[in-house]
Write a structure and sequence with these properties.
About 75% of the residues lie in helices and about 0% in strands. The protein is built from 15 helices and no strands. The radius of gyration is 21 Å and the shape is globular.
Length: about 300
C-alpha cells in the first residue's frame, strides 16, 4: 500500500473510532433510533440521485439497508445510551469478526483455520472479562445491544457476499435508502409523538453535529475510501487497519468523556484486539516465512564459519 493510501486509510480509522464519542454526544440529546434515522436520511439524500443503482436483486438492497441501519447502528447507538461507554462500544463492536467466523462455519460451511480458532478464543476471553468491569462503563443492556449490533454486522457481510456485487459503494448507498423510514417508525413506536423531529430538536447543535458527522465523514466518505482500498489492495493488506478503530475509540472516549482505562478493562481490550490480530494471520504464510527465515539464518551461520 502506498503512503498516500495508507494515510488516507488511517484517517478514516480515526474518524470511525471518534464516531462512537460523536454518537454519545447525539444520544445524550435525542433517541438513538431517531438519531440513526436522521444519519441515514442525510447520508442517502441526495447521494442516491447521483449514484447508479447496482445490478442486484432488490431483496439484497432491502436486507442490507435494514440490517446495517437498524441492526448495526440502531442497536450500536442504543447500546451507548443504555450505559455502554463509547470506548467499550468501539472495542466490543469488533466482536463481529468472531461472530462472522461462527456464522460462516455453521451457516455457510466455511473452513476455519487454526489461527482463527485461537484468535477467537482469546477475543472471547476478552469479551467475558469485559463483563466483569465494574467502573460503570459496561452495562448488561448495553452489552446485549452491542452484541446484537456485532451479529448484525456479520449478517450484512453475508448479504453483500450473497449479492455478489463489485459495486459495494453504490450497493451501500441504495441499500441505506430503505433504512430511514423503518427507523423513524421504530423511534415513534418505542417512545411517543415527542420522538418525531421538532424544530427545537433539529436546531440543537449537538444533534446537528452528531448527525452530519455520522452521515458524511463516517458514512459517505469513510465507506467510499474503505471500498476503494478493498478494490485496490488484497483484503489481508486492508483488514488490519480496522484494528485501529477501537484504539481511537478508546482514546476519543478518554479525551472527551474522561473514560478511565483501568487494569481489567485494559486487559479485556488487549485480549479482544490480540485475538482479532491473531485471526488475521495466515498460518501457511507464517510457516513459510519462518522456514525461509530459518534457512537464511543457517546460511549466514555457515558463511560466517
Amino acid at each position: 500500500m502506498n503512503n498516500r493510501d495508507l494515510l488516507l486509510g488511517i484517517f478514516v480509522m480515526i474518524v470511525w473510532g471518534l464516531n462512537f464519542s460523536v454518537i454519545k454526544l447525539g444520544v445524550s440529546e435525542i433517541d438513538p433510533l431517531l438519531l440513526t434515522a436522521l444519519r441515514f436520511t442525510f447520508a442517502v439524500i441526495p447521494a442516491v440521485f447521483f449514484v447508479k443503482r447496482p445490478q442486484v436483486k432488490w431483496r439484497y438492497l432491502v436486507g442490507y439497508g435494514l440490517t446495517f441501519a437498524i441492526g448495526v447502528w440502531g442497536m450500536g447507538s442504543w447500546s451507548i445510551q443504555a450505559g455502554l461507554s463509547a470506548g467499550m462500544a468501539s472495542v466490543l463492536m469488533q466482536m463481529n469478526v468472531v461472530i462472522s467466523l461462527l456464522v460462516g462455519y455453521f451457516l455457510l460451511k466455511e473452513n476455519i483455520t487454526s489461527m482463527r480458532i485461537i484468535g477467537s478464543v482469546i477475543a472471547i476471553m476478552g469479551l467475558v472479562l469485559s463483563i466483569l468491569v465494574t467502573d460503570g462503563s459496561v452495562t448488561t443492556l448495553g452489552l446485549l445491544l452491542i452484541l446484537i449490533a456485532s451479529l448484525s454486522w456479520s449478517i450484512t457481510s453475508i448479504i453483500v457476499k450473497k449479492a455478489g456485487t463489485k459495486e459495494v459503494f453504490s450497493f451501500s448507498i441504495w441499500g441505506m435508502l430503505f433504512a430511514p423510514l423503518p427507523l423513524f417508525i421504530l423511534a415513534f413506536l418505542q417512545g411517543s409523538h415527542q420522538q418525531l423531529p421538532t424544530s427545537d430538536l433539529l436546531m440543537n447543535p449537538s444533534v446537528i453535529f452528531s448527525v452530519l458527522f455520522q452521515a458524511y465523514p463516517v458514512t459517505l466518505f469513510g465507506y467510499w475510501v474503505w471500498n476503494r482500498l478493498l478494490v485496490k489492495y488484497p483484503l489481508s493488506t486492508v483488514a488490519p487497519l480496522s484494528l485501529l478503530v477501537p484504539i481511537f475509540g478508546l482514546l476519543g472516549s478518554a479525551i472527551f468523556y474522561q473514560e478511565k482505562i483501568g487494569t481489567m478493562k485494559a486487559v479485556a481490550c488487549i485480549l479482544v484486539l490480540t485475538g482479532l490480530m491473531i485471526g488475521l494471520i495466515n498460518a501457511k504464510k507464517l510457516k513459510e516465512y519462518l522456514r525461509q527465515s530459518t534457512s537464511a539464518i543457517k546460511l549466514k551461520c555457515k558463511l560466517a564459519k
